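Readers of this paper often ask what the protein records in our data store actually look like. Such a record has a labelled line for the sequence and another for the backbone structure tokens. Nothing more is needed to write down the fold, since each code stands for a local backbone conformation. The record that follows is passed on verbatim for readers who wish to inspect the format.
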Amino acid sequence: MTIPTQSNVNFVDSMQVHQEYEQLDDGQWVLTRNDMVTVLKLFEFIQESIVVTQSTRMSDYSFDEIPAKMFKGGAKEIISPDVEMRDSTYWEGYRENVEMTRGEKRMDKFVRGFETIRGFKFLILAAKAVVENSIETSKPNYIDICPITTVVSHNFVDGWRTRLSMRTTANLHKHLFFLGYYARGWDSRKNYYNAEATYSLNAKNYSVHEFPRRTLTLQLSNEVCSPGDHFLEHDKDNVFMSMKWAKADKMMFYNRQQLTFEYETDWGLRAVVGAKREKNEGAGELRLLPLSAAAVSDPSGEARATTMRTTETTVSLRYAPGETYINNKQRRRVINLDAPVFSISYTHGFDGLLDGQYDYNYTEASIFKRFWLSSWGKADVTLKGGVQWNQVPFLLLIHPASNMSYLAQPETFSLINDMEFLNDRFASLMVTWDLSGRLFNRTPIIKRWHWREFIGVRTLWGSLRDRNNPAAARNVGNDRLMLFPEGVSVMDPDKPYVEVMVGIHNILKFFNIDYVRRLNYNELPTSPKWGLRYSMSLTF
């Protein structure tokens, strides 16, 4: 079996799979030999190729009935406890000998020859740090310095900012993990920190986020952020996220203490229970100005600005049957998106508990589904909705999932400013379609570049009831509400926000560019009508 020579598969120049079957005494045919040879080439202008071979032999087939007790329980896959600890003696007894070629026999000598080149080890260390976004400190490694992309960053309040982050690995302790960082804002002259201690009920091989997560985490942090930072996939102070298409001047300081218990089942259900106490203070151009003090004279608002304290608990459930992951040093990535993903969460705020000032209830639910469209690629659909049930200040209202950086982020709006719209009810629908080169592969000249088409649409419907609108006459002097920051608008419930995108992906096999167009609410002074967003990905 081979793949077509003109196939749009990145980095694979050619591939062959050779299989052999044998007939058993009872007449059944079974696979006994499976050999794969793949020729990889990074770029066309590089003449050298990499040949990857995999040889598999199978024998001693048994069709005896498996005891029914082996299938008891909810786990779809059961791994023998000693399967990863078998030594070479075990494998020498079971592995069939496959004759190696002359080149394969000399591979060890070839690699050792590279290691003797001056500076080669430092080059490998630097390349590994870039790819993994992490630096190992020892062998075996007990502490990772990561992420590297947050060492230097920039924001409106701090100007330039530096950060040193570390986290422990399972080589230090298989159940107890520590994570923390210290950061310094050089213009603001403020110090920031985050410290986390996590105890895992199940032992880990390297990192705490390995599946399944069954952890108890205590977090203490003192930081600065933008209201929309928690929607981002990357770290908020990632150096690449510092590049903004608009001035991100609405920020806030927060001091947080949080306790979270997370439990994942073997069959796809995740439950998270958390308690959080937090103090917020306006920063940059964001001020927390209570309506009850609106008559106090101070044009700058400094004399009226206050802090906000909340105490809340959150319960969330997420069901993703059959979901599997690959891990890196900071997080894990989902690699199969065949089944739908359902999630629901409920948050309750307590007035008077541990200095909490507000009683509130917030509910949110979402559904994600990927549709495979054969040679037409794949389409991702995400539907979300939420309700803030109580009267609350604007920081506790529903903020749009805005992304103000030039980096494309999944499930975010690319042309909405932070807090451009504030709602107490919302629904959003996001659809993206990756055509996987269906059109470009049939276009002369362009088909040689292996580009891939990408289109999408993102919509947001929201409404704000009068009881949460500080401009409503009924709320004059209300001590629960605060003045909206400059630039905040109220959505028309009959007019959902819509933005569309058209992109070219797989440029040079790793670079993506999207053109995004905003279709309505263009009359607002905060609205950009269009923009370009970029991303990088390595996929076959």
Remarks:
- The helical segments are 88-94, 102-105, 107-115, 120-132.
- The chain has a mean pLDDT of 87.
